[in-house]
Each structure stands twice: as C-alpha cells, then as structure tokens.
Records
---
Amino acid sequence: MSIEGTPETPFALSAEDLSRLEAIREAVLDPSPRRIGRLDQWGLADEYETYAEIAEYRELSIAMADGTMIDAALSIPRNLAPGQTCPAVVMPAPLIGIGRKAYLGMFPRWALGGYAVLAYSQRGLAESGGEIHVAGPQDVADGTEIINALVQIDGVDPDRIGFFGSSYGAGTSLLVAAQDPRVKAVAGTSAWGDLFASLYENGTRHLKAFEALVQLFGEDRCSKEFRGVIEKIRNNVVDDEVREFAAVRSPRTHLDAYNNANTPILLTTAWHETIFSVPAVVDLFSNLTSPKSLLVQIGDHGNGELPGLFGLVSKPTEMAYRWMDHHLGGNAGDGAAPQFGIRSEYMHNLLSELRHEDWESYALPRRRFHLAAAAAGHSEARLAEGQPQSGWARSVRATGRDTEVVVAPKLVQTGLAERLGRPHVYGTAEVDRELAAIWTTAPLEQPMRVQGDVQLRVTVKPRATDATIVAYLLDCDPATGQARIITHAPYTLTNEQAGQATTVSFPLQPAHYALARGRVLQLVIGTHDQFFADANSTPTSIEFTSPRGAESYLDIPLGTLD
C-alpha cells in the first residue's frame, strides 16, 4: 500500500494499489475459485472467500430525483432470518479518481460485523453522472435519496444507519447527518470543520492545496456556481458569495443540528495537515455536546486512514468500527469500547498515544518567549523567556522566492514520509538571512514537549500596502543547523499604509511534538512559501520590530516530556 503521487497529483495511488483494488472488485463480483485465488498474491484470498460466503456484493446505479445516476456498490449479509434486520453504513467516496472503489478493502470487516454497506461516488465524481457541487445542498439531497433507497432493501434497519467517509466523503457524511435525522452516527476521517478557514488562513489563500483539489475535481465537471467560486478564489475576490458557498458546506455551520439531535461524531485529522484547517476541526469538536471523539495523528491529509481503507489496520478505521458498533449495534470492531474525547500521537512516534477528555485538558499552559536582538558576540537573534524585549528591528527582502524552510516540499507526500519515520530535514544554517528572520532559544536542558496552540505576536512594517509573512516553528540541532518543522502559519496584511508599523497576533497550527535534550527551538519568519498566495509586491522589504508596549513574543505550550 503506497502513494506514488507527484507535486501535481499528490493523491495518486500506485499502480500496485490500483491493480489490487481491481482484482478485489472482480473477485467480489464473481467469487469463483479463479478470481478469489488471484488475491492470494496479496494474502487476501481467505478473507474474500469468507466475505463471499457471508455477504452478497453487487454494483448498481441509483437514480436521483433529477435523473442523475449515482454509481454505487451494495453489500448485504446473506441468510438473514425472516424479520431479522441489520445495521447499515453508508460511505460517500473520498476525492479520488476511483471514487467509491477506494473503500473496497473495508467491505469484509463491515460484513463480518453484520452490517449492510452502501458505498457511492458523489455526483460528478468517478463514474457518477452530474456536476460536482463540493458537498453542497445538492449533494446533501443526494445523500437523503441514497438513504431512501437503502431503507427499501429487505433486512436493513432504518433506525440503525451510520455514515463513514474519508476526506471529501467525511465532509459529505457530516453534512448529510446535519440534515437527515436517520443518520444515527458519523465517522469522518481527514475531515474539515470550516471550509472557509481551510481556503483562507489569517487572510492568506491556501492556493497550492486549493489548486490540487480543483485538479482532482476536474473543472469541466464542476457546476457553474463552483466554477465561479474557483475564479474568484484565484483572483483573490473574497465576497459574500464565496463566504456563503463555504458556510453552507461547513459542518461548523450546522453545529446546532448535531447537538440538538445528539449525533455521535468521530473526527480525525493530522498535525501536518495541508488541505483542511486543523484549528477548525478542533473548534468543531470542542463545541459539540453530543458523544464525540477526536483523533490527531502524525502526517498529512489522508495518511492515517489509508492502510485501513485497503483493509489493513489503521487507528482511524479501527476507531470507526468501534464507533459504529457502539452506536448501531454491529460487531465489526474488536469488541473494545470506543474512545471518547481526544486521542493523539506526537511527532514522530507512531507508537505514542495520549488521551484526554477535552482540548482544555489536552493543551499545555503556554510559556512566553520574547523575540529579542542578538546577544553581544552572537550573530543569531534570541528567543528568550524573561523580560519583554523592545527597541530592535530586523529587515528581510521579499523576492517571491522560497527559502530552505517551507510548510511542506510536497502536499500529502511529505506528511506520509513523516508517518513512515522520515520527516523532512531543513537546513536552517543555509537560510539566507536577508530573506528570512530567525530567532533561536538556548539549548534545552531536558527533554520537552510542545502540546497545544502556538501564538505569535510581532510588529510588521512593510514598504508596500499589502504584505504576506509566513512563520515557522522548528526543532533544530544547534550543532548542524538541521531542523524539522513543528508548526507554521501565514499572515497577510492588506490595505495598510506603506511604511506603517502594524502589530499582528495570530495562531500557528496546533502541534504535538517531542523535543530531545540539547535541541533548540527556532522561529523563522519569511515572506514567501509556494503553499500560499503571496501578497507581496516584489522586490520589496519588510521590517519586523518590537515597540515598547507591544513587544513581540511567541507563546508556546511547552512542558517536560514525561
């Protein structure tokens, strides 16, 4: 199981993965010894032979009210007794070319647990007809019609229906649940909470991720409304239409519906998520009063659940099986009770796990590190606790070029390497100090951990009216200058007076990171990152200062490593 994407297609599955999925599809459609036997090369023959014995699989098209045909696959338990019913799980597809086929590896577990399963590709995606609306009202209406078709099938219990989805499927699942009370539980992996916050962070467009998603959708398949929004985002037009488009597609907007219905919701995300806003997912989780669970893992979008989608073991899918069992009465999990509250891994240890009831008990108290000038005899500026530091100034040039330090060299794939124990190494010693300002702490005297929300305040004095800065917090080896990223965030100032100093305060992405003794924390502030839209006119310069009464600082949730 692997991903062989490129910077242009970061979500592409490998040829081996696609070959295996097609072999599985052929075997479940025709469970003959020859078809089943072909799966032996992947060690799957016994699993799918058992599946064929206990469930019936078929592919079908479901007609929507407007005549659009939705491509789907249905699995129903065999030999249900007269009058016996089973729970059902509906799985809207992730945003991938093969659509609902991405879930084929999960069918045996659901079937062994006594579930009916209906996986489908949302309209406009893969082999489904119609145009793509991006989890809009039309997609929600389709979800309701999918449920209508499902409950007409003999043996399906209309009072025990759950939705599971990854990525695009997670958003669709959450939004259908907000509108249809028949959805009794939701598990959304690599979910989003607020679509606008994922498009714009601190006034800065996430342009690289946005264009990657548009490419996956395929503009020629997008609705007229969506194509209009695409052009507005590309042209940096943030108006009421764009905001409303995002709002109706944001689970956070429908918070009251979840709480009023007491809908159980499981969410997962990743520390180095580059597609959807992690703070927005945390915010959604924190404001739910219904039964809830949040898993945050090492890596980027879709990395954590990918093995589970292929039928292997992953925390997100194992949690989803337990979640549905608990709320719908099936037996797909291992019999253990589901985890409520927060479950997290710290970078970069896949075997780590912390559990907390809520975000307030999870996040460590923040310690304030002041941005200071370089000490006498030292070339590097200091990041130090103690008294606020004022009176200094650092100037950097904005040239439209990246430095060595960027959010992620590759969308999704950099995070996947992190999950595999190969985090990207940044050479901060090689960063041109004319292009980025760097502040460094003293070496840590004991192992420490960053756990929670990071906040930066700095005064920015651009020479132009608009300016973009990008802040990164790094874990650095002072002996080599080699570092790993902990967290980051951009910030864009607009319509300011050229040459006017403006104090800005903004959050970086939350983090959970273990630091070894002797390492240093580094704050790097640059002016360009390929991941974000850049508002800087080039060439120009930006000055960072720390005026008295508005001294610059970085608040870090830092504690000892237990």
---
Amino acid sequence: MVKRKPIFLSVLAVGAMVSVLSVGSLLSKLPGPWSAPDRASQIEAGENESSSVLAYVDLPAKERAEILAETAKGSKSIDRHRARYLLATDLIAQDRGGQALPLLDGLEKSYPVLEAQILAKRAQAQAATGDATEAEKTWKALIKQHPDDPATAEALFQLGRKDSKYWDQALEKFPAHPRSLEIVQARLEKDSKQPQLLLLLARHGIHLDGIIPVLNRLKKDYADQLKPEDWEAIAFAFWENAYYGSAGDAYAKAPPSALNLYRAARGAQLGERYQDAEQGYRALIQAFPNEKETGMALLRLADLADKPEEAISLLDQAIERFPEQAAEALLAKSKILQKQNSPQLALQIRQSVLEKYGNSEAAAKIRWEQAELLQQQGDLNGAWAWAKQIVEQNPDDELAPMAAFWAGKWATQLNQQTQAQEFFQHTLSRYPDSYYAWRSAALLGWDVGDFSTLRQKIPQVTKVGQRVTLPAGSEALQELYRLGQDRDAWTLWQVEFTNRLKPTVAEQFTDGLLRLSMDDHLNGIFMLSSLAWRETPEEQAEYKALKQQIGYWQALYPFPYMETIEQWAQQRQLNPMLVIALIRQESRFEPEIESSAGALGLMQVMPETGDWVAKQIGLQNYSLTNPVDNINLGTWYLDYTHREYTNNSMLAVASYNAGPGSVADWIKKYGLEDPDRFVEEIPFPETRGYVESVLGNYWNYLRLYNPEVSQKLAAVSSEHAAVIKNSQP
C-alpha cells in the first residue's frame, strides 16, 4: 500500500495525482499505438473555444515558440495577450530577458487579469539583463500598485536580499507564500532559536521535508510558551504527516473541540497508548455528549473494552443515542454475542439491522457474509439471492460492484444465462470505473483482455480531454493554470487556500489538480479520490457533477513517464497499460518514494531484488530512484513473474506483490478452476486488494483513453456516456 506524502492535506485525511492533463503533448510523440487528437479539440469551452494558444500550453517552449510568435504579432485579442505572456515567460526561463521585455511592454494594460504577474515578469527580465536598478524600480512599483496581491511576495523577497525590512513585510502579509517559507528557513539557519518562526513553519510548511524535526523541537524546547491554538497547528501538521501518536499528544493540548478530543484519543490509540486513548474517549463523551465524534468514540471504546458486557453497554449507548452509528454498533454487538456462544441472539440482532437499517453499510456487510457462507456450502441459489439484495438495497455501498458481478457469476453457474448477462451489464452500467466492470466486460466477450491475454494486448490510446477550469481561486489563478504556468499557479494557491481544515468540494478539487500539476501525484490523486468521502447531500451532488467531467477522471489516471514506460514495456513485450496501471498502484508515480519495507521508486523495487535483476541483465550502475533504471528493472521482474505463470497477468501481478512462492502455495491450496474465485480467496488482504487495484487501474485507463472501449461502455452506461459527452469540444 502506498503511503501518502503529506502536503497540506485536509482534515479528511483521518488515516492513512508530469503535469496534469498534459497527456496530449506527450502521446503525440510516442510511436505505435500512442496517439493524440487534433490540437483544436483540446481548447477550453466558453470564451476559450476559439483560443489557439491554450491548445499549446503543454508543449515544450521550443515547440510552441514559432506559433506563439505568430500569434503575438496578430491583432489585439486575448490570444495575442496570452501568446506574448507565454513567450516572455519562456524567454526569461531561457535567460533571454532582453528579448522578453518588448513582449511585456504595456501588456498589463491590455491583459489586466495578470497585471501583477506581468510586473513581476518584467522585473525578472530586467534583472536577467543585468539592469538591477530598473528591476528594483519595477519591484517597488509592484508593491505600491498591488500591495495585497500574492505576486508582491516575490518583490518583497527579492528586495529583502538587501533590506531585511522587506522580508519582515513578506512574513507578516504573506506567511503561507513559498517565498516566505524560504525566508523563515534562511533565518533559522542563522539562528535556530526562534519559536515564532518555527510556529510559522508548523502552520504553513507541512509539506516541507524537514517539518517533523521542527514540530518535535517545538514540543521539546518551547512547550511552556505554546498556546492551545499553537498546539492545534502542531497537531494538525503531525496528523497530516501520519505521526498519529505525536498528533494525539498535541491535540490533547489544543482547544477542546469534539474533533480535537477525538483525534487526541485516536492518536493515542494508534500510538498504542491504550489507557490514554480510553481516558481521551471518555473525556470527549463527557464534554461533547451529542457530537458525531462521540458516537465514534463509543465504538472505539467498545473495541478497547476488556469485558464483553462493558463493550455491549457502550454499544447500546451508541445504538440509543446516535442513529448514524446504530447499524455498525448492532453489527459489532452481534459479533460479541457470537463469540459468547449466543448465536441465536446474535442472529436476531443481525436480522434487526436488515429490517431497520437495510440500506446501511452494516447491512451490506451482513448480506455479503451470508452470500459468501452459502457459496462455500454449495448453495449458489442462496448466495445469488443475498448478492441480489445488495444490488437492490445497497447500490451505493462499496460491496455493490462485487455483489453485482458475483450475482452474474453465480447465475452463470446455475445456467441462468439471461440473468447472468443482465447482472454483468448492470455492473458495467452502474459501476463503470470498478475492477468488476472489467471482469464483467471480459465475461461478456468484450475485447478488453482477460487474465491470460492481457499481457499481449497493445491498446490504442487517445487523449480526449483538456485542462478543466478550476472551480475555486482567483481569476489570476485560473488564468495561470489555463496557460500551463503551474508553478506560479501553485504559489498563488498557497496564499489563497485558507480553508485547509474544512475545504469545500471546489477547493479540494482545485487543490488536487494543482498538486498534480506540480508532479505531486500521490497527494493529488488522494485529494481527488477522497472527495468520495463527502457526506452531506449537497457535497455529494457537487462530487457527482465533478465525476461527469473527463478532466476529473484523466487527473485520477494520468500518464507520467509514458515514454519510458512504453520503451521498456515494448522491450519486455508487456502491455504498456498494464505497466502504468501497476506503477499507479505501487507509487502513485513518485520516483523517490520508499515503502516501510524498503522498496524504492516508481515500481517499488526492493534493493535485493534490484541487485538480482541487475545481474540478470548486466546492469552495473543504476539507481532505484532513477525512473529509467527503476522501470527497466521493474518491467524485467514483471516479465519474469509472467513467465513463471505462463503469462497469466493476474498471477503475475499477485506474484509481483507477494512473491512467487506465496502464489504457488495458493494455487496448490485453491486451484485455478475459477480464477475469479482464486482472486477472492487470496489469503493476504493486501495482495487481494493489490491485484484488484492494478487490474482496475488498467480498466480505467482503457475506458478513458481507448476510443473503442470508451464508446462501447458509453452505450451501456449513462454515467460513462455523460463523461464522454462532456469531453467533446
């Protein structure tokens, strides 16, 4: 399982997405099946429908220079302004500031949405020519004319190199700006004993590599100087970096809200300080008896209880006082009674869950347990009936795609072919992004690859979308993002995004897209995918609307390192879409990520495995954090696991995760008469989830980027059809 690299993660993260949407420019260069649509199809909607410039923002500077230069000479238009700005920015990056200055001359008057940014670019261009005097004048003009614009932080930073008062202004006015964080770090290097600067990092530098030592220093050296609000900031930073035990300690000293008390207790529990956890949960229950966190606290306390009768008493309180927790509490109570040799009472309680809370997650669990039990006993009719109940009464539950698929499988085994077809069609229609949709498509005879044929396929791929319009942020931020000025957009967002604890759906979606644009795929994908956790009807409606945008899905399933992947996949005779699907699961495209077991890089290669593979292929000097080396070694090993299991991709993927020895043992134990059943019976939950995730990733890349499969799916799924419709220019 991939561990997220925290960068200002939202409060939604209670445990534990190469530039976003730049696939078109990348795929256009790839040989073989990789292709891109005509550039004109990648243009924004609305006022941007006729924009030729936006179609080129993801191209390298050298490739777009000529067309932008021609556009910059044209008549006055938004395209002309955009072309001038992009050309100037490219020239400055190439240290050709003198050529950039004429393009920027007077541009702020005709392109006011980026007025502050244009002044900043002019100052950078002047500095690049060696004209420090003019650059200083422009920086000061920017401060005077746009004192509240985040672009001014760059002026304060540059001027502060000579006069520290400007740095003081930057820290006071723009504490979250990346330049301000640079200032703090520079000052701490000179004098580390500055708690207020350490606190600024704790509040705004959660993404920094060295943030944990900063937080620990605050706890150790300045505890007596910290206010409750300071502890809350420290706690949030610890929590977002997955240091839950330390977070619990800090939350215990934060202002006593229901959430803070819950996290204090939960952090203690995760840190295995069970007595502190119990005391914390009880303090929460007493201080905030009616808050939703209290319902969760009662369930946690029941888990910690030493005696069954004590656990049942706590669960009864949750059942009586918190209807939203009642079904889960009843299910937990039934499990205790089952262990206490009271099967009849346990059965009655489960029946009450089905009767009173039939659409709950707990009810879906009960139904699936019954379906599995009857299947094991050979009663396929009974298993089918219970699975059908989930499809009908729990259609939004995470178990529903699996239940719908297995209802089809069991109907097939019962020679009910019509019903089987209906359930497979339903799985595709209702859950088009699921692993079980791929399995349903395969069993319906679609040309999407099966366990034994997946390796050899080379799917055609076409990018069909474009950069979406950011739903949150200023007009300047949105324009910078449209122009592909991702670092400038990200910098601006750090100042504008002040609602990090409880972001709106629009803010979280914007944050996810901007993280992706900065190659932070791990956290970007997390921010977008975790939108599914929203609870209120209004938020769920916003999330469902986002899911109808092709940009949402292409952001979730991007194509970083595709040239390298295609190169090594071709050499190893592997389906390149399978390789990218595996990389997405292994590392979320983070080249330097390391697992708790020591696996490194994009394909999470263990050092000893890397050494062994390197000897096989004669590779002497390599680095597992180098994308080319890692994909070279990882694809060789994936080819090896395929060869070990006669090119069965399911077994090869399972072996990649758990090792060939484990898979061999499972084959002996379970057999391969029904490979779908084999997947469900994999005794390692991590490996079972891994296989379904990798092959589910493969299916999502296929349905989003392969025109034939996408159109075929749209014919049976209104949800996918809406996505495809919204992707049309």
